[in-house]
Amino acid sequence: MMQDEEMRARPITTERLIEDLADRIAAYSRQDWVRVAVDGAPATHPADLADALVEPLRVRGRGTLRVSSWDFLRPASLRFEYGKQDPDAYYDDWLDANALTREVLAPLDPGGSGKVLPKLWDPVKDRATRTPYTMVAPGTILLLDGTLLLGRWLPLEFTVHLRLSPAALERRVTDAWTIPAFLRYEQEVAPASVADVAVSVDRPHHPALIEEP
Hints:
By secondary structure, the protein is of the alpha/beta class. The protein has 8 helices and 11 strands. 31% of the residues lie in helices and 21% in strands. It starts with 7 loop residues before the first strand and ends with a strand. The model has no long low-confidence stretch (mean pLDDT 95). This is Uridine kinase. GO terms for molecular function: kinase activity.
């Protein structure tokens, strides 16, 4: 895992970051589905970056499908088995990675059916969404946002990690009880090292690309 003092971060504007990511993603084959994940703690707003990529990709001739991992959480009875503020359960048990793979990612494997369920579970109402399946055209880019996504062996072509340093986690994470889960993520997965693109967002309006020494 890269320690903070070992990281090199190159400042980049948000606009340039979005354009650069769109260029890289759009370069994938137009005949194949492309599964992209934007990963980060909720305080980094990964959904906002995934949303921001939709229009630049459209301009580049690529259709998109937006999916959020928050629509693939396990039922409350499973998520909260050890209480509502257990960081290990948050890390290990909240996301139904098998359902996300089965309903969204695996159908977009090469030779897959292309039949995707964009939403499975409403975590607020704690019930199935009853969202219909959708057929995804070849060449469509899946933009998946979520938290703690890396290191789960999800089948993905391209990954972006939005990183907060431990000090920034302390400042910006509103649910302080989740911080041990993110520190564990750093230790066990080192997401900034395994992602295709890692971005430091300690200063929200001044991102910086993380480059390994």
